[in-house]
Design goal:
binds ligand AR6, Appr-1-p processing domain protein, Leucine Aminopeptidase, subunit E, domain 1, alpha/beta, six-stranded mixed beta sheet
């Protein structure tokens, strides 16, 4: 039997280059673009993405919305909004878990088989990556366990530090 971790890959690099069915955007509730990975995705996808996002009427934290990928190699972008870190006692963990779950659910509903995630909330939103990575891994593993349709989840890291955190989180649950 294939182990769940065989369906999870850790990669270092720019998510906009990923050749997967869908990439995930760490957006803000307006869905109208921003800095970090959000800015990179909008730049790479081109103006069609912003136009489609304007029609979505935003997205509350913990939820997700899907659009096409436009000029990206990925066919779809799933936009989700993670929590802003406020010290850890304001429901941030659960909201982060919800953002992963909502995204995977939309992916499954749209027949997506391969999906790449950035480390949601760990940039401008200030969520410590060593606390975020085990939450991300637990949600993804839990989902893959119940759902056979998603074949591959790529955790895209923008730093060696994030990569180490993900590899640690994965190694503790093999
Ligand atoms: N590919 C992969 N990962 C990236 C890339 C990239 N091209 N660029 C940055 N990262 P952030 P957040 C990593 O700040 O914390 C935006 O302005 C980055 O190193 O993009 O959820 C939105 O509009 C970090 O590990 O998202 C919101 O206002 C991770 O992606 C706000 O930032 C997430 O960092 C959302 O903040």
């Amino acid at each position: 039997m294939t182990s769940l971790n065989d369906r999870i890959e850790v990669a270092l690099g720019d998510i906009t280059k990923m050749e997967v069915d869908a990439i995930v955007n760490a957006a803000n509730p307006s869905l109208l673009g921003g800095k970090g990975v959000d800015g990179a995705i909008h730049r790479a996808a081109g103006p069609g993405l912003l136009e489609e996002c304007r029609g979505l009427d935003g997205c509350p934290p913990g939820e997700a919305r899907i659009t096409r990928g436009y000029r990206l190699p990925a066919k779809y972008v799933i936009h989700t909004v993670g929590p802003i870190w406020r010290g850890g006692g304001s429901g941030e963990d659960e909201l982060l878990a919800m953002a992963y779950r909502s995204t995977l659910l939309i992916a499954e509903e749209n027949g997506i088989r391969t999906i790449a995630f950035p480390a949601i909330s760990t940039g401008a939103y200030g969520f410590p990556v060593e606390r975020a990575s085990p939450i991300a891994v637990a949600e993804i593993r839990g989902f893959l366990e119940e759902n056979g349709s998603i074949e591959k989840v790529v955790l895209v890291c923008f730093s060696e530090r994030a990569k180490e955190c993900y590899l640690d989180a994965l190694s503790t649950c093999e």
